[in-house]
Write a structure and sequence with these properties.
The structure holds 2 protein chains of 2 kinds.
Chain A: H1 3-13, E1 18-23, H2 29-41, E2 46-49, E3 62-68, H3 74-86, E4 87-93, H4 94-98, H5 101-109, H6 112-120, E5 142-144, H7 151-162, H8 174-180, H9 186-189, H10 206-209, H11 226-235, H12 240-248, H13 258-269
Parallel strand pairs in A: 1-2, 1-3, 3-4, 4-5
Helix pairs in contact in A: 2-7, 11-12
Chain B: E1 3-8, H1 12-22, E2 24-30, E3 36-41, H2 59-62, E4 66-72, E5 78-79, E6 87-92, H3 94-108, H4 114-121, E7 123-128, H5 138-141, E8 152-157, E9 160-165, H6 168-173, E10 180-182, H7 185-198, H8 211-217, H9 222-230, H10 236-239, E11 247-253, E12 259-265, E13 275-276, E14 280-281, H11 286-305, H12 315-319, H13 327-334
Parallel strand pairs in B: 2-6, 6-7, 7-8
Antiparallel strand pairs in B: 1-9, 1-10, 2-3, 4-5, 4-12, 8-9, 11-12, 13-14
Classes of the chains: A alpha/beta, B alpha+beta.
Chain lengths: 270, 350
């Protein structure tokens, strides 16, 4: 057999990569984005498991698993560990999986048992854990934040992974995308509490482009300067309490707020 | 080569029509209460003649925010983009013209950036005079007037523009038009008076003959720590800067094996910018990064090119949410003169 024929055979016999799309605690928004874009991926991947979209699913080993949602109860954790064991690559999709989103934001400020009692009643058998990111429990290969995620980024990341390229996911702030669109700065000109300087880009500066302040839904940018951000907002007359609520709403890790929380504690005790 | 004419403001629509024969005309337009941006214009009424500084400088036309360097198909065949759309930049002030000259020096230095060079060939630049506001400090940077770097330059002398036609490209475009009238003596005098009097209108200034030495001597001045602590690392100062030219290269792959390589503006104020293999970072904190930026603007280029890259347009000053890009204020403090209050005139809260 000639070398050309041999490589042709190899090409044909190379299995199509398999993907799986799984969900923990979240709003399922990311699943909808994946579903919308499935057609573009389908010639190149085989869907092995996608319980949200199809009834026949398998728990066989899989090449790439996209995981949506945060770990918010023991069942999520059990499911996530099993996912990690059977997946070559795990991609965290959406703010819930990457940062913990609003459920973690709430857990940063309120006791989880108290919230459970208020929502489900004290007698409820429902088990809860403080909401956490999936990387707090298993190794995550790619983190694709967003609330919801951006289609273009999803497809680019998926295509890169299938080619064994390092996927590119920006960690630069929203200000970059906003200035590149040449929007007038609403933080400066209108004193709106825009969190663009400390929020990860990827959305294309969606909110500031229509005059609404960025509320941080993609999670913090790389090395977000939270103290400096709070300083800017305080100079505009916002209270530290409100600033902390805004900055932490989408699950930004508490260690970014050590100094600000100390200041708030001091203010509370006075 | 240079020829001087006068253009009656009543004839401006005709002047504009002639510019449109060259290509799409981009001029400052009002986009918010305080801001202007270069946008494509059709009619005189769309142009904000009063605009001092646009959000983004005209560098966006020479070196766009995002551009495709090349695309490749499944078999690896490469296609380069075509960048030969003729366009007119109308209303660039002396600081912006100086900024474009800095970019020209950088992007055309061998081996040269082919896309930049090609794009530049198809641009006609029309400069326009301006009256400084409290943020302008081009006079201190020596960029308050320019001798070249434009095809035409319009100086506003009341109901006329004094028009300098500086290049063959411009002369050809305005060949045989009856609205450009040879400048007579009174107009020449008005032109000279305008530029003479304008010198006295700058309130934001510093006097220093040796910025590089000053920055070297004061590399550990407390001002860096003080401002760096307030820095958001948002990068706004660099995007709006007429001479900041750093970019990131991004490769976007498609499923079928095709894809494209693009570049987009990047900023030295981002944490990832100076990060290298092994997770080392030359400038890990905002203090390091802010100091680096100030040095690059006022000092760094002096070594290699013998000119500072700051052109004194004041864009960074008005675009910084943390109000720390007061270049004049910082230089004055480094000189040991604390008598000048920050241009923002605010005390820190935290």
């Amino acid at each position: 057999m000639s070398i050309a024929r041999l490589s042709e055979t190899n090409k044909r016999s190379k299995p199509i990569p398999t993907i799986s799309v799984q969900s923990l605690t979240g709003c399922a928004g990311e699943l909808l984005v994946i579903l919308e874009n499935l057609q573009k991926m389908l010639p190149y991947v085989r869907i092995q498991s996608f319980p949200f979209a199809q009834s026949k699913n398998s728990d066989e080993p899989v090449d790439i698993t996209f995981v949506e949602g945060s770990v918010s109860n023991p069942h999520d954790l059990e499911k996530l560990r099993a996912i990690r064991l059977r997946s070559k690559r795990v991609v965290a999709v959406g703010n819930c999986a990457v940062w913990g989103c609003v459920q973690k934001g709430a857990c940063s400020r309120l006791a989880v048992e108290e919230m459970r009692n208020q929502v489900y009643g004290a007698e409820s058998k429902i088990e809860v854990m403080p909401a956490s990111r999936i990387e707090d429990h298993v190794q995550v290969d790619v983190k694709l934040s967003g609330c919801p995620i951006d289609s273009t980024q999803l497809l680019a990341v998926a295509a890169s992974m299938l080619k064994d390229h390092l996927p590119y996911v920006t960690k630069k702030p929203v200000c970059l995308e906003c200035k590149l669109r040449e929007n007038p700065c609403i933080l400066i000109e209108q004193d709106l509490p825009c969190l663009g300087p400390v929020t990860a880009a990827g959305c294309g500066a969606l909110c500031p482009s229509v005059g609404a302040p960025c509320y941080g839904c993609w999670g913090p940018s790389e090395e977000a300067q939270m103290d400096a951000m709070a300083n800017v907002l305080m100079e505009k007359g916002f209270s530290l309490k409100e600033i902390l609520t805004r900055l932490q709403a989408f699950g930004a890790p508490p260690e970014l707020f050590t100094r600000l929380n100390q200041l708030q504690d001091q203010a509370d005790s006075n | 080569m240079e020829k001087s004419y006068v253009l009656s403001k009543e004839d401006f629509p005709r002047f504009l029509e002639r510019l449109k024969q060259f290509g799409t005309v981009y001029a400052p337009t009002k986009v918010s209460e305080q801001s202007f941006a270069f946008k494509a214009v059709e009619r005189e009424e769309e142009i904000a003649f009063e605009a001092l500084r646009t959000i983004l400088p005209p560098k966006k036309f020479l070196y766009p925010q995002r551009e495709t360097l090349f695309s490749y198909d499944e078999s690896g065949n490469i296609t380069e983009p075509e960048v030969n759309q003729p366009l007119v930049i109308f209303g660039a002030h002396p600081c912006d013209l100086s900024g474009m000259k800095v970019l020209d020096d950088i992007f055309t230095a061998p081996p040269g950036d082919s896309l930049y060079i090609e794009r530049r060939k198809h641009i006609l630049v029309v400069g326009q005079s301006c009256i400084p506001d409290k943020y302008c400090f081009c006079e201190s940077m020596g960029t308050d007037s320019v001798k070249d770097g434009y095809d035409l330059f319009l100086t506003d002398i009341e109901d006329h523009f004094f028009v300098e036609v500086a290049t063959p490209k411009a002369a050809e475009l305005f060949n045989e038009c009856d609205f450009l009238i040879q400048a007579s003596e009174p107009y020449k005098q008005a032109f000279k008076d305008f530029w003479h009097n304008r010198k006295d209108l700058f309130s934001n200034r510093f006097e220093t003959s040796n910025l590089p030495a000053l920055l070297d001597l004061e590399a550990n001045h407390p001002v860096w720590e003080e401002l760096g602590q307030k820095c958001l690392s948002c990068g706004n100062c660099t995007f709006v800067c007429p001479t900041c030219y750093c970019f990131d290269i991004v490769e976007i792959a498609n499923f079928n094996g095709s894809g494209q390589r693009g570049r987009e503006w990047d900023s030295c104020q981002f944490h990832g910018f100076a990060k290298v293999a092994g997770n080392f970072n030359f400038r890990p904190g905002p203090v390091d990064r802010l100091k680096f930026w100030y040095r690059h603007k006022l000092h760094g280029f002096q070594d290699a090119y013998e000119f500072p890259t700051c052109v004194g347009c004041g864009r960074c000053t008005v675009s910084c949410p943390a109000e720390i890009d007061d270049i004049v204020g910082v230089v004055v403090r480094l000189e040991g003169k604390d008598d000048r209050k920050s241009i923002y005139a605010k005390e820190p809260v935290l």
